[in-house]
Amino acid sequence: MYKIAVLASGNGSNLEAILEAIESGRIQNARVTIVISDQEKAYALTRAQKHRIPSAVFRKAEYPSRESYDRALINYLQAKQIDLVVLAGFMRLVTPDFVAAFPNRIMNIHPSLLPAFPGRRGVADALAYGVKVTGCTVHFVDEGMDTGPIILQKALAVREDDTVASLQERIHRLEHVLYPKAIDLWVRGKIKIEGRRCYLEPEETGLA
Ligand code: GAR
């Protein structure tokens, strides 16, 4: 049984989607054993509690540097024998030490078709740019900002009357399908990484 840690800073709707996928058997042979947040008021923590998943808060202010913060997090996750680290709206850039501690075992979801519109404002930036198509991306985390090998992407059309909120809502719905699917692929050993390319068995992507 693989042990997953989910790190979330905010609402945690992706966490919820992942927990539902596990509870309904769409992801088998894995459990979320810990939810971690850098924000003590994150609704993700309430969601964890509702699903009876243990949680922990790592407050930025308690550490003198990003390196010491990540060192504490690495020690904590290793002590819990975590196999896969899932960033779900975790709004901190992880350090190279963190990436090295979990090679190809950290995933992130981002609300744009990377490499377009990385960073914290992916949806707003895409809308302001005027793109006609955007979407979401699940990728492995490397040292860069939203730059690691791409596992899955899904696109949607931007509507003439879209606002950041309306676009974000539709992207969220895609994310809630895509993230559990990517985790399931990882758990079943269906992702082969070569350089910065992830190869999936074609029938496994199940994407239109
Ligand atoms: C998601 O849309 C995710 O793609 C985004 O934060 C949101 C978290 O939502 N992540 C980033 O922008 C990372 N650069 P949630 O808390 O409801 O899962």
Structure description:
It is a single chain. The chain has 208 residues and is an alpha/beta fold. The protein has 2 domains: 102 residues, Formyl transferase, N-terminal domain (Rossmann fold), CATH 3.40.50.170; 101 residues, 3-Layer(aba) Sandwich (Rossmann fold), CATH 3.40.50. It is built from 7 helices and 9 strands. The chain has a 7-stranded mixed sheet with strand order 3-2-1-4-5-6-7. Strands 8-9 form a two-stranded antiparallel ribbon. Strand 8 and strand 9 form a beta hairpin. Helix 1 runs parallel beside helix 6. It is globular. It binds glycinamide ribonucleotide. The site of glycinamide ribonucleotide (GAR) has 16 residues, from helix 1, strand 5 and helix 6.
Features:
single chain, 208 residues, Rossmann fold, two-stranded antiparallel ribbon, 9 strands, binds glycinamide ribonucleotide
CATH superfamily of the largest domain: Formyl transferase, N-terminal domain
Instruction: Give the count of structural domains.
Output: 2
Overall 3D form: globular
User: What percent of residues adopt helix (DSSP H or I)?
Assistant: 25-40%
Following the backbone from N to C, one meets helices and strands in this order, namely EHEHEHEHEHEEHEEH
Strand order of the largest sheet: 3-2-1-4-5-6-7
Low-confidence stretches: none
Mean pLDDT: 96
What is the architecture of the largest domain at the second tier of CATH? 3-Layer(aba) Sandwich
Structural class: alpha/beta
What kind of oligomer do you see? single chain
Which band does the percent of strand residues land in? 15-25%
Largest beta-sheet details: 7 strands, mixed
CATH top level of the largest domain is Alpha Beta
